[in-house]
Amino acid sequence: MVVTHGSVAASRGRVALTIGNFDGVHRGHQAMLARLVAKSRELRVPAAVLTFDPHPREFFAPRAAPARLTRLREKLELIEATGVERVHVARFDARLAATSAERFVEDILVRGLGARWLLVGHDFRFGARRGGDFALLEAAGARHGFALEAMPEVRLDGERVSSSAVRAALEAGNLERAERLLGRRYSISGRVAHGAKLGRSLGFPTANIVLRRRPPLAGVYVVECCGADSGDGNRWLPGVASVGRRPTVNELAAPLLEVHLFDFDQALYGRHLKVRFLARLRAEEKYPALGALRAAIARDVAQAKEYFANHG
Fold this sequence. Notes:
Blueprint: E1 2-5, E2 15-19, H1 27-43, E3 47-53, H2 56-60, H3 72-80, E4 86-91, H4 94-97, H5 101-112, E5 115-121, H6 134-144, E6 147-151, E7 155-156, E8 159-160, H7 163-171, H8 175-182, E9 187-191, H9 198-201, E10 207-210, E11 219-226, E12 237-244, E13 256-261, E14 272-282, H10 290-310
Parallel strand pairs: 1-4, 2-3, 2-5, 3-4, 5-6
Antiparallel strand pairs: 7-8, 9-14, 10-13, 11-12, 11-14, 12-13
């Protein structure tokens, strides 16, 4: 899959295109991307996606923006798995936010990306002050020579599948519900960084992944991790993980994902890990002393090992 960033260069050919943030790449997104790929094959043109980074709501109201379900790298990997051939990641900044709906169509969709066929939802809004809608796209398509199709919403158990619904499930600790909406177990990926070595001093060394944006869940979880084993980077290894700000010792400004893998002693600094969440054990807590924290972690490890013994 070809990924481009920044300004959109003049198109070298026509594409089948869809637009969206695609945070989480849930079942609704997957249905949309499947329709895109099918139509691209019918038209014999590449399947292309226009997405944004940061999320527009992170630009307009960073403190009130929703938690990110996926980092950009993981989102692109999930999109690639659907068969999409091209993705353009547009930086959402003041200039893009001020672009009128008409200029957005002409400069980005037509001249830049070469849309021959466009797939969006009926409620899709775009351009400065969200001035563009489906009706405007229909009129623009007639002028500029691209076809437009509306994607019907995808529903599960009577509920519209959406990134907001996934976030709500994860925030409530309902991993099963999140899995149904996503079509897979929820995971977080990132690169292991050096930490304070607190886990090692407590007898439970951890791989630390700094989360630069607020994650949709917090607490202590049973997890499995791939990318850690140098002998087989695709092997899933069992463990327990904490997501939060580590309130007992030097509470952190940014949330941290700390993963303790069972019976594992390789150095992981700099490795890119994927951590898959299997079950929630408890909320994050502040303990009066390190001894109490050590005892709580020991209980977490015992419960996680029991989980794997019962779900082998």
